[in-house]
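Quick question about two entries, pasted in order.
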Amino acid sequence: MLTSQLFITVFPIEEGQGLHWWSFADGVLEAKGYDADPLLAAGLKLPSMEDEPIFHIALLPSALGVVRWHQPIEDLTEQQILAAARLAAQDNSFDVENLHVAAIVDDNGLPVTVSVSKEIMASGLLRLKAMGIDPDAIIPAGWPIRSASDGFFEADLGFEILLRGEQLIAPNESSLRAHLVGDRNVTVLPEALVDQGLANAADASLLNLRVDPFAKKIERYMTSPQRRILSILAAAALVISLLIPVVQLVKYHWAADEADEAALAAAEPVIGVVDSVEEADRMLNERLINENRGNIAFSVPVSALFSAVQQTQGVSIERLSYRKDGTVFAGLSAVRNEDINPALIAIQNAGFVITATPRTDATGVAKADITVRAP
């Protein structure tokens, strides 16, 4: 995991505890110190909204977590080996229910576990959160220090002095040192080498305790170029959304103009050259009226016929038709011919030209075959 900005603090174990901290840029130590508010002291603000995100590591004191190396089991996958290592770490605990275990396979192919109390994890994360810190990784304090193949290193991290061996990370306490080291060689690392080990912490495989219930929630932040691109895309989407109805409107306008031109071209042989569709429609209607054609040639006389029949008691319409010459033909019936006459008179009074042929059917009912035509 390569990162240009790295910020390291101690994992707190007490309320209001001051923390040692280190700030690195491109693998170079920029500043370090010991403060109750490490972010303020380092001049940082996490999470970072800058172009280069800051990777934060919290170092778990070796007295709080137990690191163990385990022998791999043959014919098992890496996931199965890690699961077996976790079970082995739990077997060495007296409080399995309160135990949090993380595991990885190191560069030598050996499974490694770190065990810590869930209560310590939960309380420490709350204290870091109160400082505005949400670490990306929580690792054993001695993990970034390179191991010695033929002896031990003693590293002073400021908050503790620890022993680092090929398969050992432990506090440098006199009671433990004699038991763990014996008469083997212990090399004291200079401060510069300790700082360099911390600088490379994020670039190596991390024995990270931020897994399972303590895994960090992923929060995505946009860089400045990403925000610019998003703004451009949003503006482009807005312009496109506005252009779509405008383009459709223009297309509809063009289509309407083409339809008008086609209508005028079709009407020109009948009524001559006109300037607009409205004028052509008016002239066509006038011509149809003059020739007793068009929609009113049927609807107007039929309306007058029905109005006259409705006003005359005992008269009904038996049949109705429209002839090509613009004449409406209807058959009326009543008890007597005299009953039909008021209807005929009403149609005439409305201004229509009518003809009527009275007759009587076999049952004695009076009939009248009439034609109605607009004047």
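Here is the second entry:
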Amino acid sequence: MRLEPPEKVSVEELKIDVREVEALLQAPPMVLKPWPEAMIPLKQRDGTEKILYIRQSQPSDVLPMLEFMKKVMAVEKDFYDIVGARVYAEILGEYRKRLKDPFTLVGLIDGELAGFANGRFMNENLAISLHTMTFLRRGSLGYAMYYAKTYYALEIAGANEWWSTFESYNGWRMAGLDMAQPSYPWPEYQHELGGARVFYVTKKYWDSSVKNFLKQKLGNDLNFKVTDEVRKANENFRCPEVPEL
């Protein structure tokens, strides 16, 4: 848009350093505590156990995950296509600093990406759940990943409330139904993912009920004392050749 200046000016063209523009486009970051890394044994249907190692995503994970998400986006069932597209944008948005105060957790089994969970902070009191995905069947990976990011938001980062929405039936059953999450009236309250219904967990509800959910559901809890053996087994990050969806 162009308007004539209401007074004579000495310089009619301004040269602007893009670094000055970036200061306006990039949201000033909050100071968020890091995820401390954790592990949890997951019981398989054949009676064996696999150790899931959950750590914060690293910049070196981004490009492999973006390539992997292209494969997920091509799956036209159970809403993997739309979730894959949105997760691709969120990974890239965090990498390009176009997502406000995001946090991303990756769940690894022997170095291979098995689960993904991310969210962001609206402000110091409200954290927004974005997506939870699993790429290996069985073992209740989704429960562990969703719980981990909820734990991070409410227990570690100090939010007072956690907002979620669900694009798939399985996601709603796992976290919305099994955690007995109430919802706010719609459309007065809308989640940023497409204006969908908001399901929520307050810190009070977390402390009274949900905090024990993972142990009740899986029989195990997050262990933040990660062993050197588990850390070493997961030091080389890789994505599956084919997502098991």
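Reply: The mean pLDDT is 95. Strands lie at 38-43, 49-56, 102-109, 112-121, 126-134, 161-164, 199-202. Hope that helps.
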